[in-house]
UniProtKB/TrEMBL annotation:
Signal sequence annotation: none
Compartments in which it is found: Membrane
Source organism of the structure: Marinobacter nauticus (strain ATCC 700491 / DSM 11845 / VT8)
Pfam families for the chain: MFS_4
Lineage of the organism: Bacteria, Pseudomonadati, Pseudomonadota, Gammaproteobacteria, Pseudomonadales
Name of the protein in question: Uncharacterized protein
A GO term from the CC aspect: plasma membrane
Amino acid sequence: MTSANTPTPRQLFTVLLAGSLVLLVVHGLGRFIYTPLLPYLVADNQFNAPDGAAVATWNYLGYLMGAMLAIRWHRIDQIRLMLPLFLAVHVVTTLIVTQTDQLTVISVTRWLNGVANGVVFVQAPALILEWLVMRNRASLSGLVYIGVGVGLLVSSGLVTGPASLLEGAERWWPAALLSIPLAWWGAMQLRQLEVPVRQHDDAGKAVVNTPLLDRASIPLFLSYAGAGLGYILPMTFLPLLAKLELPEGHALLDGTWVIVALFTIPAPWLWNKLGALMGDLPALRLNFLIQLAGVLATVVWPGALGLVLCAALVGSTFLGTVLLTQRIGRALHPHQGPRLSAAMVALYGFTQMVGPWLTKQWLDAGGTLVSAFGIGVAALAFGLVFAFFVPRPEAWHARS
């Protein structure tokens, strides 16, 4: 897009907008639209709640596999090819689920949609981060995740707005139609970014990747695993929990997802700012504490109060966990770039897949959905503990 070392504000805006839009497509219209859709699909008798949890698990399995593919396809030339391809996969799979009520077909299609989500969610921010680093604008990297927050709000409107007009598989049509132009424009912009295929040091020698796992990064990976398992329960089942706990016609039946979306939109800017002011690592620990309080609220105060607190506190933190952890990891392992991002997202994806699966086992065994949120509480506590074992990057690199 530009060969200049100092990009113009317009160029920065275009790049960040393109990244935000592709994340809006694959995460907002691909993954998270399923959360507000789930109560409607259950009410339409497309499937029951345990089967709905199984469909979510298939999607998260695909996300994990997509992130693992991104570890393999981490070079810039590969990203330029794979990013548009998997955005097309997202569009096609979303169109397919508009045409079927068969649980097996839905599960397979949502799995493939998850693969596309995993690849794009790794490759788009990683490509943009490398482009920004080359232009001394790495501190702006977290702003690309604003697209996820906007996607939550858009997904809520696409589900609740036409809710009385659509039924069953038809409910996917708004997401499918909006995905097409956004995916196309975002892909075309990102393919034009000028980023070297391989990084080189000051002497012109190609940089060799260092090991991903060591005494510094292992606690960070474990902490991130706790985050993935902890946040995915409310982000999958909060509207369904509201439907189970609140009377018919209550404003929070759809309102919990709107609250999540509204608090998610400014979250990347907020945690970007807090990371700059207090350091990424202290900000990450604070982030875990707030997120833990949010999930705990649904267990301690069942009903409207717990639902609102969970929606607000989780919505305002989970993207901060992502962007802070990614930046800390890159600071601990410079020159890893997309490969590091892919490894972390793969781990995150695995724990997200485990969450709905554990929930299904718990529900099948006679447990309640609100008590299943205790799994998320324990996972976030686990993540918080290990966040205190991650060294400061500057101290790690200064060790003798």
